[in-house]
Amino acid sequence: MKRQLAIVSALLVCDFIFVTSDLNAQASWHWYRGNTHTHTLNSDGENTPIDVAAWYREHGYQFLVITDHEYLTDPAPLNAILGRDEQFLLIPGQEVTGRSQGKPVHVNQIGAKKVVMPVSLPTIFEVLQRDVNLVHETGAIAQINHPNFGWALSGEDLARVENATLVEIWNGHPQVNNAGGGGTPSAEAMWDVALTAGKRLFAIADDDAHHFKPEHLADPASAAPNRGWIYVRAPKLTEADILAAIRRGDFYASTGVELTDIAATPAGLTVSIKATTFSRYRTEFIGAGGKVLAESTANPAVYQFKGDEKYVRAKVFESNAKMAWTQPVFVSR
User: Fold this and answer.
1) Which of 15, 27, 186, 275 holds its CA 20 to 30 A away from the CA of 45?
2) What is the number of H-type helices and E-type strands within the chain?
3) Region of poorest pLDDT, from 10-14, 272-276, 296-300
4) Is 256 inside any structural domain?
5) What mean pLDDT is predicted for residues 303-309?
């Protein structure tokens, strides 16, 4: 199958992270909505795995990764009851709950095959790197969780770490400090530090939900579901296809904005928004150092590459505070 991950022209070499294979085949692919971070009573959640999975299926999600702390939920019994072809799928996962220097260092494994126990090492970065390596060695995808939880990680940590594929830039838990503060940058800004250093990390939004009881769902102080998710572009709703798409970055993160297409060519990046009649939209095209390269209120929003960008990514703002983030397109002369 033809690959369009690297297109060479006379002026540019563009590494198209999320523009995947043969465009004719890709035209028949689908966007699948999913969550890669949630908890049940098998760790610190309050509901059973089947109740949690049923909640997501009933609220418009096509796949879910249950990521209890040091516990691997077998998805087979849940898929036997709740799974439906092209409708809903459970994928195995775990949250590896490391700690060092009094701070939390948490890494999800997506597509987990066995429980990975966190290590104890002298420094935060050593724990981060070792736990990521342990996940990577099993063949699962390593996702760095909530970098600002406990003010544990830095952009430099993200730039240095090897073998991680994903980083949360938006986590719906009310205590993870997505926006930064007190001189500490946001999780999104940390991602830009890593991208500017040349690190290939893909951005995740998820909810880190713990609380599914009715009295908690509308409580902003609770860790309720449906506050962040991803849309993955894949040919079919299978574990293999979803994980392959996540590995290659063929997805975008969202807190409510839905896109119909993301396309990169040697000329530029185009983002098409599924607009609602009551909303307005603004798209920022962001490059090295988190610099805003251009803004657009058009739909689709288009950015023309100049050739001197290190990377370009798009962030879409909706007039009711919803957002979406594309993955980066790396551009160099």
Assistant:
1) 186
2) 8, 19
3) 10-14
4) no
5) 96
Count how many Cα atoms sit within 13 Å of the Cα of residue 40 in the half-sphere of its side chain: 21
End position of a domain, from candidates 227, 249, 271: 249
Q: Sheet containing 268-273: which strands, arranged edge to edge?
A: 259-264, 268-273, 301-304
For residue 302, the cross-strand partners are 270
Residue 33 forms part of a structural domain: yes
For 253-262, how does the pLDDT look when each residue is reduced to its tens digit (9 = 90+)? 999 999 999 9
Both tokens of 299, joined, read 């739909």
The pLDDT tens digits of the residues spanning 75-87 come to 999 999 999 999 9
184 and 265 share a domain?
no
Separation of alpha carbons 178 and 211, rounded Å:
19
Judge whether 89 lies within some domain.
Answer: yes
Q: Is 152 exposed, middle or buried (0-12, 13-18, 19+ CB in 10 A)?
A: buried
Nearest to 247 by CA among 183, 202, 278, 182: 202
Q: At what angle do helices 75-82 and 49-58 cross, to 10 degrees?
A: 40
Q: The tokens of 264 are what?
A: 């990169």
CA-nearest of 42, 51, 79, 82 to 212 is 51
